[in-house]
Amino acid sequence: MNIVVQKFGGTSVRNLECQCQVMQKVLRPYREGNKVIVVLSAMSGETNRLLSLACEWAECPDPAEADSMVSTGEQISCALFAMLLKQQGVNCRSVLGFQAPVRTNDAFGKARITAIDSESLMNMLQEYDILVVAGFQGVTGDNRITTLGRGGSDTSAVALAAALDADVCEIYTDVPGVFTTDPNMCTDARKIDRIAYDEMLEMASMGAKVLQIRSVEFAKKYNVTVHVRSTFSDEQGTIVTQEDETMESVLVSGIAYDKDQAQITLVHVMDKPGVSAQIFSPLAEKKILVDMIVQNPSKDGKTDMTFTIPRADVKQTINTLEKLKYEIGYEELTSDLNVSKVSIIGVGMRNHSGVASRAFRALADENINILMISTSEIKVTCLIEDKYTELAVRTLHEAFQLDKGPVEKP
Amino acid sequence: MNIVVQKFGGTSVRNLECQCQVMQKVLRPYREGNKVIVVLSAMSGETNRLLSLACEWAECPDPAEADSMVSTGEQISCALFAMLLKQQGVNCRSVLGFQAPVRTNDAFGKARITAIDSESLMNMLQEYDILVVAGFQGVTGDNRITTLGRGGSDTSAVALAAALDADVCEIYTDVPGVFTTDPNMCTDARKIDRIAYDEMLEMASMGAKVLQIRSVEFAKKYNVTVHVRSTFSDEQGTIVTQEDETMESVLVSGIAYDKDQAQITLVHVMDKPGVSAQIFSPLAEKKILVDMIVQNPSKDGKTDMTFTIPRADVKQTINTLEKLKYEIGYEELTSDLNVSKVSIIGVGMRNHSGVASRAFRALADENINILMISTSEIKVTCLIEDKYTELAVRTLHEAFQLDKGPVEKP
């Protein structure tokens, strides 16, 4: 049995016309003799409508009840789509989270898939040619409905593809694929044909919203080949897959950025053992995601400690650290909200050293000052003043000739 | 464990304000130490909205998919109501058809409850003080969502009360109870304090929309005392219960009517054995509900056959019978759409003969011609010209002094 998984987002199913277009995509592999699993999101706007209704009813809506309510969005889009297919004479049915079942833990609102009953789904595939599966939702061990968090339908699709050993998992979206950088920021941005899971993870974590980050982790873990492509055209999109030699021969795959950053500096911190823990443990407890951390070389037993956090967490961070001023022992806390991160990403830089310096030179040539630097095996990130974000992205995109197709190693 | 079942319809949960009012009703038995099962309908208008959406998508929406879609109405109202209660600190949860589970057959759109897992619900009642159960919905043996048909939430409530051996099943509605007749038609209509299941069945089948007829059958079968009352006041409503002596001492309980009727006459039918079967079997096959049937005394081996059907089925009935004209052997088919039924209902008339004649006399006094008559143990029905419906209802209501409280037998 050849199985194709296709996932369509809220924009793609938002009305009858769009669903008819989606149907054409679905009927193609079906007519080629494949069994098709169609994973759908709620019609766009519906999830937000339901959440705001919940917020009218209660200040802090009970998360389990909110999930039961919000999951109706996918329930409706799946039923409607199955009706459309049935009318075409297709032997199909809708499958909700509890019907598959897609088991999750009980972290309502951001549940994680723990198991998918592939036997039950395989039985359904014996009986039906197309299953229209509700994305974004699952069910706990004791049958309470859960949702997987924003963009969770991507994860549903990848998890189903993994469980059913599908030939391919196509994620349809409103863009043609994954780009070398944000096309809204850089008109030279080019669609990437193939990208490694790790690169995609870095792109995704920097705000490239094409794929939910968790779905990429899932795909990597279970080695599911994901094809990101457009609902509104037939062109090939981007294949997200295992790293291979061709990919390694490419130096840089893309430029990502994140404007939602703030920089915090603790001035003249006592440079004593355990001070980092004193600073960052309380922030971790508050679930504040600290990213780049730089500690200046110590001078007279004192040091400056600088780090970045999401902009939304600035107030809470300042509050938390000011309460601990004497305990930690710092002189002053400064914050800067006008910063952003720009990253160069590529598995090819793993065994190549020239990438960082080439990037620094390109930024320097445009007089863009680098406030902080952090590097990983496949990424170089620079913190810069946020007014330079667009310029930096375009500069780096050009420096690595991403507009000209994959940059081979020199 | 004392269990109270309360059911609220769509009007009662249509917005936040109404749900807050409902909450007060629910909190009363809860504060008295009872466990409460709250059965809710969808917010009013929602079921129709979903059905018309389905009809946009498909000419004949697949009934299983339509059920999955329409059931979201109750899913949402239950989640919202549970949020409200939770916010008051009540230990509660929503329970969907598949979670209870309420098992049904697979007659999608008009499913019948086959079993309710009382053990599973009792376990939930150990853990929670209030269960907010979705009315109108159930689940088949293989976990597909079903709905019970219009007004099915009443049946859900009664079935739950039966399964859990509840002390009372309160059906809250937008009227104060069951009336001696339609108050919109007769200003003297009076709320009935107690009514027998059989009387209620007759009232319900004649279009008194306070209770769904199936729920009354269910209540009768499992001997569940139902209290029909208003969401918007605290006054006692109508108790629907087993017949008792007090009831039998009352001659007539109410006057019902049904304007949705048509009369069909086959003129000069060959009066031969089996002719009735020849006429009515094909109609039964088409699920046309034939009600009153009158066969005139035979003359020259021929007779006239007159019967009533719902007005919506007139075309289909005529088509069906015209095709069989020569087979049946009748001369002419006439139809009359301007008729309606008026009924006098009461268990007390079982062993009393004067009711029918008193009714006929009253109608005659107003020059209302009776086209057909049918009687049962507890009902006398007259078919009349429909322009006289209101007058007939008021006349009969007055003739049996229903405005003056229960009419004792003479």
Q: What labels would you give this structure?
A:
homodimer; 410 residues; alpha/beta; Carbamate kinase; VC0802-like; 2 domains; eight-stranded mixed sheet; 14 helices; 35% helix
Describe the protein.
The structure is a homodimer of 410-residue chains. With 410 residues, the first copy, chain A, is of the alpha/beta class. The first copy, chain A, has two domains: 3-174, Acetylglutamate kinase-like (Carbamate kinase, 3-Layer(aba) Sandwich); 255-404, VC0802-like, CATH 3.30.2130.10. Helices cover 35% and strands 27% of the residues of chain A. Chain A is built from 14 helices and 18 strands. Chain A has helices at 16-31, 46-57, 63-70, 72-87, 118-127, 152-163, 197-205, 213-222, 245-248, 275-285, 314-323, 325-328, 354-365, 389-399, and strands at residues 3-8, 35-40, 92-95, 102-104, 113-116, 130-134, 137-139, 145-147, 168-173, 194-196, 226-230, 238-241, 254-270, 293-295, 302-310, 332-345, 370-376, 379-385. In chain A, the strands form four sheets. An eight-stranded mixed beta sheet of chain A has the order 3-6-2-1-9-11-12-10, sandwiched between helices. In chain A, helix 6 (152-163) packs parallel to helix 8 (213-222) and helix 13 packs across helix 14. The longest helix of chain A has 16 residues, at 16-31. Chain A is globular. Chains A and B meet through helix 2, helix 3 and helix 4 of A and helix 2, helix 3 and helix 4 of B.
- The CATH topology of the largest domain in chain A turns out to be Carbamate kinase
Q: For the terminal residues of chain A, how far apart are their CA atoms?
A: 45 Å
Number of DSSP strands of chain A?
Answer: 18
Number of helices of chain A: 14
Mean pLDDT of chain A: 92
Helix and strand composition category of chain A: alpha/beta
